[in-house]
Amino acid sequence: MDRIFSGIQPTGNLHLGNYLGAVQNWVKLQSSYECIYCIVDMHAITTFQKPETLIGNILEVASILIASGIDINNSILFNQSRVAMHAELAWIFNCTAKIGWLNRMTQFKDKAGKNREKASAGLYVYPNLMAADILAYKATHVPVGDDQKQHLELTRDIATSFNDNYKTDFFPLVEPLILGEATRVMNLRDGSKKMSKSDESDFSRINITDSAEKISAKIKKAKTDSLPVPDSSSELSNRLEAKNLIGIFAALRGISLQDIIKDYGGGSFSVLKDDLTECIIEELQPVGKEIKELLNNKDELDKILKDGAERAKEISRPVVNEVKNIVGFLT
Ligand code: AMP
Ligand code: TRP
Prior knowledge:
Layout: E1 3-8, H1 16-29, E2 34-39, H2 41-44, H3 51-68, E3 76-79, H4 85-94, H5 99-103, H6 106-112, H7 121-135, E4 141-143, H8 149-165, E5 175-177, E6 186-187, E7 190-194, H9 212-221, H10 240-253, H11 257-264, H12 269-295, H13 298-327
Helix pairs in contact: 3-12, 4-7, 4-13, 7-8, 9-12, 10-11, 10-12
């Protein structure tokens, strides 16, 4: 049976890229798949997190996901560290993945930067833990933004290598689901960089919890060029900032880039920006309200994650036990 698994890091500042590249798709997929969604706190500590900040961020991400439409009565929502199978399987995958494969991971290169010797060992083996997250549930489909494609290829390599080494067909080969017109939302101040939680400038991103005033100010200030809005899609490839705004608009409306170009092409950016602002506010304002309400009852959020973890354990425990048998451990 088809099963969805996906994860998001509780590292603060969830933004429109997370929303359009991941969360919005997670919500839609619930009607056609069994879905397991994980707040990956163990991935978060691959770079140092203050404990009190981490706890707050886990609950905040839970509130954002529920407010966006994750249905906790059907889908499973939990935080990773509560389910030990992730760490157990990750160790086995540390012994399956090759150093050469990890050396090719661009996210590690980006996050470790120039000072690679000082990066944590966890940051290096991060993709092995991600493969364990997915394969502990034998998930078949993984909805993510474009930046995670390489990690999912590694997950397939790990599954193939494990199956070959142990002469089994135990692990499925996962399919990435990279959906919609905003699979890579870019920085509002620089169209060549990804919108990210960690960029110093808050004006580089729209946070899911931003007020209407903030959203309006940020879109007004968003970088564009001095030409009118592109009137053909062939123009988009060298007009990155324009492409980004059009992509965000199309994804929010659930239509194609071409449809937006048809409506706004040749016009001024200020008209497009006004309508885009309205569209973002319309989408995010109800979510923001609901987040506030949910965060008033943190005990309830904690209970939801705990219940989710129990359901996650029921699925992953037998899978990981079987892996241990295959590997030759006494269980
Ligand atoms: P992270 O915040 O790194 O845990 O990412 C959570 C999810 O959001 C993953 O599926 C990412 O691929 C997706 N994501 C993160 N940044 C962006 C972005 N700028 N555009 C589209 N998707 C993104
Ligand atoms: N690495 C992902 C990111 O940074 C988060 C993640 C962890 C994930 N485990 C996962 C995504 C499993 C999909 C499936 O965005």
